[in-house]
Amino acid sequence: MKNRDDYYLTTYGEMAAILEQLPTVVRETRRVRRLSVRESCEQIGISTSTLTRIESRTETTPDPEERAPAGPSLEVVMLILNWLDSGRNVQATLPGTGASDARE
């Protein structure tokens, strides 16, 4: 029988760091895959304005009227993460780590 720890592949802190880097990772992935914003959005299933806001980080800029920073919806983040995973054979360098994300 598996114990609870067998199901966790990463820590919550690592997930937070990944999400913080999402704009850079998306932009770099588009560059490596040689896709325009429009082409990427068609593959992901989101609007070009949404992806443009994410890549330019305006969606993660805190709203002075609210306590929490504004950001993309969980649904949009899930779509983007699935899209990133769909190119698993694409090799890219993860920003700030120097580590290669080459999966096959």
Topology:
Layout: H1 12-20, H2 22-33, H3 37-44, H4 48-55, H5 74-86
Quick take:
The chain is an all-alpha fold and 104 residues long. The protein is 48% helix and 0% strand.
Structure description:
It is a single chain. By secondary structure, this protein is mainly alpha-helical. The chain has a single domain (10-86), classed as 434 Repressor (Amino-terminal Domain) (Orthogonal Bundle), CATH 1.10.260.40. It is 48% helix and 0% strand. It is built from five helices and no strands. It has helices at 12-20, 22-33, 37-44, 48-55, 74-86. The longest helix has 13 residues, at 74-86. The radius of gyration is 15 Å and the shape is globular. The two termini are 29 Å apart. Mean pLDDT is 77; it is low at 90-104.
Observed structural traits:
5 helices; mainly alpha; single chain; disordered C terminus; 104 residues
> Which topology does CATH recognise?
434 Repressor (Amino-terminal Domain)
Secondary-structure element string:
HHHHH
Overall average pLDDT: 77
CATH architecture verdict: Orthogonal Bundle
How many helices? 5
Count of DSSP E strands?
Answer: 0
